[in-house]
Amino acid sequence: MNQLLFSLLIVITLCGQQQGSFLQEKQNNKIFTIKLRETQKIVTAKEMYDFLSTKQTYFRQQIPIDISEIEFGGYVPKLQQNEQKKGTSLKLHNFKNTQFTGPITVGDQEFQVIFDTGSANFWIDSVKCKNEGCQQHIQYKPSLRAKHLGYALNVQFGTGDLNGEVNSDVVKLGEIEIEDQNIAEIIEENGSVFQNTGFDGIVGLAYPSMAAYNFSPLFDNMINEKKLKSNQFSFYMSNQVNSYESQITFGGYDVTKLDGPINYHPVIDQYYWMIKADNILVNGKDEGFCPKGCKIVADTGTSLITGPFEDLMKLLDLTNINDDCSNLNQLPKLTFRIDGVDYDLDSKDYIMEMRDDGTEIPLNNDVSASAFIQGTSSQCIGAFMPLDIPEPQGPAWILGDIFLTKYLSVYDRDTNMVGFGKAKH
């Protein structure tokens, strides 16, 4: 991995809290909408990359956790005697540069969570966790309807580690109620990547093949229990920081948030919400990014656009962003061509202006593009990051919230398609 990822600080938009509830249900349509909010935070690229690329192991634990055994930095879940560990790879792209949160009730408590199409598990900070990162958030306490399942998760990465236990409780989203939703309670977390964030948990909305222990993700339980008229959900992301205009809608999409038609594209790998792009063009020109097509992941848990390292470095060279923003009007148009439909991003869509927040983004000598710059007033940065997703899902590009703000996105499990339509701002 290039040293850029070990030194770069990227300004991202992380989740802020909003006390709120569903908008009024649309009668007879079974469509429910949650308002989302965004605020600005800073996270190091190294921490995020380490967590994203980690291999995660989990095992069945029969003995309930004794809270008295949990100490800062010292607790490791105990294996049942003669119980064998099970190994697997569980990719959690939802922790990378996440942006938007909304309300959800678990047991008797309301939390602000990230609704993330890039993961499939349901994580929540537990009252059992005594670490600083946990105690800065609302901590989940099991209700009388909770059930002990005895599964445990262990995550180790370069800048810390996380231990969790998977149990179940009742979950409510407005009028929707799921009786036995599996929840990964975070019981210990070490590493600053989890501290000073504005969310209490993660609700994964990817395919169940990504979920631990073959548990059903929250949306799959909605499907199985026939909670919605249409088994789809959608995201509208406002371009106004700190606004309350962003929303996730279960059971359909909000036509008032659209400025044109929706085009649908088939999912090619039911793990991520992954589709295939014909090409990625720069000012309408084929630069060789997709000689045989490109895998594209629609990921609401990622702020930036990511691509394979070599391709992303080439893209940064082609854009050649001046750090004083002086060539903003001369920067090229980027086009993601998917099934013959062109989705354009103008410079104003993929440039982030760095303001007086004290943030510094050091340059790396190996990177010739000038998109990574010192974060002072009137400075510009490209909203891109290199990320090599391993096979079999990778190599792939991620369309994060930079793209999904311009285009309202629909995730349809009835037809296994992803839809994009120009959002109305």
Features:
6-stranded mixed β-barrel; 7 helices; Cathepsin D, subunit A, domain 1; mainly beta; disordered N terminus; 425 residues
**CATH topology (fold) name of the largest domain:** Cathepsin D, subunit A, domain 1
* Helix count, DSSP H or I runs of 4 or more residues: 7
Structural class: mainly beta
What is the CA-CA span between the terminal residues? 38 Å
Can you identify the CATH superfamily of the largest domain?
A: Acid Proteases
The total count of strands amounts to 29
CATH class of the largest domain: Mainly Beta
Specify Rg, calculated over alpha carbons: 21 Å
Number of domains: 2
Helix content: 10-25%
Largest sheet: 6 strands, antiparallel
Strand content: 35-45%
Gross CATH architecture of the largest domain? Beta Barrel
Give the strand order of the largest sheet, numbering strands 1, 2, ... along the chain. 2-14-13-28-29-15
Q: What is the 3D form?
A: globular
Low-confidence stretches: 1-27, 40-46, 62-98, 357-377
Mean pLDDT: 74
Helix and strand topology:
Elements: H1 4-7, E1 9-15, E2 32-36, E3 38-44, H2 45-52, E4 56-60, E5 86-87, E6 101-106, E7 109-116, E8 122-125, H3 132-135, E9 147-157, E10 160-173, E11 176-190, E12 201-204, H4 218-224, E13 232-236, E14 246-250, E15 258-266, E16 269-270, E17 273-277, E18 279-282, E19 285-286, E20 294-298, E21 305-307, H5 309-319, E22 334-338, E23 341-345, H6 347-350, E24 351-354, E25 379-382, E26 384-386, E27 397-399, H7 401-406, E28 407-412, E29 417-423
Parallel strand pairs: 7-12, 8-11, 20-27, 21-26
Antiparallel strand pairs: 1-3, 2-14, 4-5, 4-9, 6-7, 6-10, 8-12, 9-10, 10-11, 13-14, 13-28, 15-29, 16-17, 17-20, 18-19, 18-22, 21-27, 22-23, 24-25, 28-29
